[in-house]
Amino acid sequence: MARLAALTTLLALLCSVTCCQAEGYGYGYPGSGGGYPSPRPTPPAPTPSGAGLAVGFYRDACPNAEAIVRDVVEKAVEQNPGVGAGLIRMLFHDCFVQGCDASVLLDPTAANSQPEKLSPPNSPSLRGFEVIDAAKAALEAACPGTVSCADIVAFAGRDASAVLSDGRADFDMPAGRRDGRVSSANDALQFLPPPSFNLSELAANFAAKGLDANDLVVLSGAHTVGRSHCSSFVGDGRLNASTSDMNPALAASLRSQCPANPTAANDPTVVQDVVTPSKLDSQYYKNVLNRNVLFTSDAALLKSGQTAAAVVRNAFVPGLWEQKFAKAMVKMASIEVKTGANGEIRRNCRVVN
């Protein structure tokens, strides 16, 4: 409680010098008023958005592209919110390896037996591949050879965010990505940050992809939805009562759910947010402050003044995190994209053409 009080005081001091006003922190959000946002209007004329991408990229070539993806995603997430969490995570795991090029979707082949999706950070935990397949099939029926798998992953991450947040985190996603032809399990191990990373390791990992400490804090908030395998945190000593800073009540609950030594045959999953496990919201930041988080990388956000202050703002300024999450998702989805002749548009998202 002393830490929470100190951080709350820090937020007040920060806002007293116009930090909150200068950054335009409002209390509203797109689709406010409750419920899922109303259908999107006619796609806008393409608007350049950096990295060779544009909002409304498919307006002429496939006018219903985004609506088709959203329909598939909305139905899947309403049936199983965990799939939505998987689709958000899939965008992150795709973009941090080879850039946002759908390389995470490629299946093993005789020529490449170890693609990204079989790497330990992705297998067996990454979910939502069947949703991407369904969206691609619908798009190929409507507009053959037009919409890249990389753009489908980006749209799906955006749409899952909108559904899980009841429209509070809904945003335009620029498109125009091409699909990559390279996928390596070793690359996934090299570039995806493990949950055991400390703050300096996390910051360096994100900086290598053009993302700053603010992006790190904001994107970590996606841990407010989804589940985690016990093996992701048990081995890091997070449940050790004598050394961990985890809330003792949460640690005791997790010890009752997780084996002391998880194996491939015995590795249960637990919710990442014990308060609102199926809702994309700012509860994660209150959990960080109350030490109710699973990973070392979550707890690490309180290890510097800059990131701790950001945690407090996201926890207590209504609507702030959703606004920043939308911007950070778009920024992340532009990492090392392939456009034009640098990639292809796969006919099947699981194999190169």
UniProtKB/TrEMBL annotation:
Q: Which GO terms describe its molecular function?
A: heme binding; lactoperoxidase activity; metal ion binding
The record's listing under InterPro entries reads: Haem_peroxidase (IPR002016), Haem_peroxidase_sf (IPR010255), Peroxidase_pln (IPR000823), Peroxidases_AS (IPR019794), Peroxidases_heam-ligand_BS (IPR019793), Secretory_peroxidase (IPR033905)
What protein does this entry describe?
Peroxidase
Which residues of this UniProt protein bind Ca(2+) 1? D94, V97, G99, D101, S103, E116
Can you tell me which residues bind Ca(2+) 2?
T224, D273, T276, D281
The record's listing under PROSITE patterns reads: PEROXIDASE_1 (PS00435), PEROXIDASE_2 (PS00436), PEROXIDASE_4 (PS50873)
Q: Which sites are catalytic?
A: H93 (proton acceptor)
Looking at the UniProt record for this protein, which Gene Ontology cellular component terms does it annotate, in alphabetical order? extracellular region
Q: Please list the residues that bind heme b.
A: H223
Residue spans making up a coiled coil are none
Does the record carry Oxidoreductase as a key word? yes
Q: List the disulfide bonds.
A: C62-C143, C95-C100, C149-C349, C230-C258
Q: Which parts of the sequence are marked as the site Transition state stabilizer?
A: R89
Q: What is its EC number?
A: 1.11.1.7
Catalysed transformations (reactions): 2 a phenolic donor + H2O2 = 2 a phenolic radical donor + 2 H2O
Which purpose does this protein serve, as stated in its record? Removal of H(2)O(2), oxidation of toxic reductants, biosynthesis and degradation of lignin, suberization, auxin catabolism, response to environmental stresses such as wounding, pathogen attack and oxidative stress.
Which protein family is it in? Belongs to the peroxidase family. Ascorbate peroxidase subfamily. Belongs to the peroxidase family. Classical plant (class III) peroxidase subfamily.
Checking Pfam families in the record gives: peroxidase
What are the record keywords, sorted?
A: Calcium, Disulfide bond, Glycoprotein, Heme, Hydrogen peroxide, Iron, Metal-binding, Oxidoreductase, Peroxidase, Secreted, Signal
Source organism (scientific name): Panicum hallii var. hallii
The cofactor named in the record is: Ca(2+); heme b
Q: How is the cofactor bound?
A: Binds 2 calcium ions per subunit.
**Leader peptide range in chain numbering:** 1-22
Q: Where is the Plant heme peroxidase family profile domain?
A: 52-353
Compartments it resides in: Secreted
- PANTHER family, per database record: PEROXIDASE 25-RELATED
* Chain positions recorded as substrate binding sites: P193
